[in-house]
Design brief:
single chain; alpha/beta; 7-stranded mixed beta sheet; 7 strands; globular
């Protein structure tokens, strides 16, 4: 199957099952206008995140990697009226775009975007004594994926769900000799997850509008 067919199947699914509204379309348009990289999740992937968080019954969500807030909108919509989502973004410019997109989606009261290196923001959350999060979406710099998973465990509770995006890397995750920091970090993340006594996990490959990639899904067991 060609990439063109992958895209056509994604479009078919999206047209039937994931009709985008003004807030989502505006988020994409505003992100493009601001020159943000076009690496946000696809619409059907966004709805998958929404359904996973909704099925989890999440009232507190932590996202690592905001970009323009497209995935953040999907996750925020899974929250109850009094739920909270904290999203961590390195770039102040990206965060400004995301905050405007979230406000247009009516989520500014439920979502906090924090700016700075994610590892510093995660340490700050711990120092503040934050309540555990029910759901984590990790989609930031891949070199730090093992650290982000370790932090998710620190900020979790038994039953929390962790999703890590972009774990296939076009198949390069197989390359044990790779010097690409994204591949090295992703492989190390898999090692952390597979050896961890508090996690049970799987990973799936995906094809579609975002090419050949995949995600890891893990549950905190204790």
């Amino acid at each position: 199957m060609s990439e063109q067919q992958w895209n056509a199947v994604d479009a078919y699914f999206t047209d039937l099952l994931v009709p985008e509204d003004d807030a989502l379309r505006s988020a994409v348009a505003a992100s493009d206008a601001a020159g943000l990289p076009q690496i946000a999740v696809a619409p059907n992937q966004g709805k998958l995140l929404y359904l996973l968080a909704l099925t989890q019954g999440a009232t507190r969500i932590l996202e690592i990697g905001t970009l323009g807030g497209y995935s953040t909108i999907w996750l925020g919509r899974a929250l109850p009226a009094d739920g909270q989502l904290v999203s961590l973004e390195y770039s102040a410019e990206h965060a400004d775009v995301a905050r405007a997109n979230l406000a247009r989606a009516g989520l500014e009261k439920n979502v906090e975007v924090r700016v700075g290196p994610a590892l510093e923001s995660l340490a700050a959350l711990e120092a503040e004594g934050t309540d555990p999060f029910d759901f984590f979406f990790i989609d930031a710099d891949k070199a730090n994926n093992p650290h982000y998973v370790e932090w998710a465990l620190k900020l979790s509770r038994p039953g929390s769900v962790i999703v890590v995006d972009n774990v296939v890397r076009g198949g390069s995750v197989l390359d044990a000799e790779s010097e690409d920091p994204a591949v090295v970090g992703t492989r190390r993340m898999f090692e952390v997850v597979s050896d961890h006594p508090r996690l049970t996990a799987t990973a799936v490959q995906t094809v579609g509008a975002r090419g050949y990639d995949g995600l890891l899904l893990a549950r905190v067991t204790g």
